[in-house]
Amino acid sequence: MNFRRTASQTACPTGVAVIAFAFLLASAYLLAAGGLMLFRPGLVGMAAGAVLLSGLEVAGPYMFLLIAALGLAISWGLFHLHNWARRVAALAAIAGIVLLIPRISDDVVSLRVGRLAWAALQMTVRVLIVFYLYQSPVREAFEAS
């Protein structure tokens, strides 16, 4: 498997770079929070990852580190236009959509408009990520590299 690109290969599309950077930021946050939870117990609570982990944060700091490592791999793969990273990023976004369903249902029943709006925004962004990653020009950019 060749991980080097030549100058003739396509550059990373802007949208892909934005998605990769979002994965990188989320991974850095989870890595920092998980590291602090391990090395300075009590400094950071598990609720620090609730927005990104959607319930998986109760598994402890190792889940923070595992998801951070997955996010870093996805980010690296997207920046380098590896097709596996496009597929895994889409699967991660779909998993995030599925994990948001109980939160949205609870917010509708409880009439928490602010939380519902935030969860709806998160779901919209994740749907847009999946939609964008499967557009023809984006797929072609990944297949060309």
Task: Give a description of the structure.
By secondary structure, this protein is mainly alpha-helical. It has one domain (14-144). The protein is 74% helix and 0% strand. It contains six helices and no strands. The chain has helices spanning 14-39, 50-53, 61-79, 83-110, 113-133, 136-144. The radius of gyration is 17 Å and the shape is flat. The relative contact order is 0.15.
Total strands: the figure is 0
Sheet with the most strands?
A: none
Helical content, roughly? over 70%
- Gross morphology is flat
Q: What average pLDDT do the residues reach?
A: 89
Radius of gyration: 17 Å
Query: What percent strand?
Result: under 5%
The string of secondary-structure elements, in order, is: HHHHHH
Question: Quick gist of this model?
Answer:
It is built from 6 helices and no strands. With 145 residues, it is mostly helical.
Could you give the topology of this structure?
Elements (H helix, E strand, L loop, with lengths): L13 H26 L10 H4 L7 H19 L3 H28 L2 H21 L2 H9 L1
Helix pairs in contact: 1-3, 3-4, 4-5
